[in-house]
Specification:
heterodimer; A: about 120 residues; mainly beta; seven-stranded mixed β-sheet; four-stranded antiparallel β-sheet; about 0% helix; B: mainly beta
């Protein structure tokens, strides 16, 4: 079974440009999450989808970030325009609530974004 | 959201048992305790999750006292490949807006 996949693995863009990150969750997982780790800082939650709906986007830093999840399948995270402080590693994770109400989230390998 | 406190780093040797303790004093009734492992340039990987008492799987054991204000991840007979950062997280199963601390950097020596 394929795990969570993220594209691209690395992206280097200039300040002011637009970048779109993609996440393909595990098939059948309703929950999809985006996180990021800015250099030297801790992993921070960005937002949570349940199927195609945004359940919680309280972690989105500002309106330059736009996340979508078309048809409840893959998700994209667009940064427009990118700023230097957006550099970091962006992780995507997916999960499905287990019968015992526990939840194991599966993470992708991350996309390393560098804004120069 | 419950915040966790864990050692910044630990050292051990191959073949030893390693115990990493995490404090979560303000854990809520609905919160589960979850541990993740992360290698450089990879995403976190789920290790184990529990609510109370003891949970064991093929990788680790998780000990949770009755008051649930702390938990201990136990890795039996570690190897060099267990060198990684280990994160303790506390949260409701329906809410993955988790607070990630700095984790514990575990270094296994030969």
């Amino acid at each position: 079974e394929a795990g969570v996949t993220q594209f691209p693995s690395h992206s280097v863009i200039e300040k002011g440009q637009t970048v779109t990150l993609r996440c393909d969750p595990i098939s059948g997982h309703d929950n999809l999450y985006w996180y990021r780790r800015v250099m030297g800082k801790e992993i921070k939650f960005l937002l949570h989808f349940v199927k195609e709906s945004k359940q919680d986007e309280s972690g989105m830093p500002n309106n330059r970030f736009l996340a979508e999840r078309t048809g409840g399948t893959y998700s994209t995270l667009k940064v427009q325009p990118a700023e230097l402080e957006d550099s970091g590693v962006y992780f995507c994770a997916s999960s499905q609530v287990g019968e015992d109400r526990s939840t194991e989230a599966f993470f992708g390998q991350g996309t390393r974004l560098t804004v120069v | 959201l419950a915040k966790t406190t864990q050692p910044i780093s630990m050292d051990s040797y191959e073949g030893q048992e390693v115990n990493i303790t995490c404090s979560h004093n303000n854990i809520a009734t609905n919160d589960y305790i979850t541990w993740y492992q992360q290698f450089p340039s990879q995403g976190p990987r789920f290790i184990i999750q529990g609510y109370k008492t003891k949970v064991t799987n093929e990788v680790a054991s998780l000990f949770i006292p009755a008051d649930r204000k702390s938990s201990t991840l136990s890795l039996p007979r570690v190897s060099l490949s267990d060198t990684a950062v280990y994160y303790c997280l506390v949260g409701d199963h329906s809410n993955y807006q988790l607070i990630w601390g700095a984790g514990t950097k575990l270094i296994i020596k030969p």
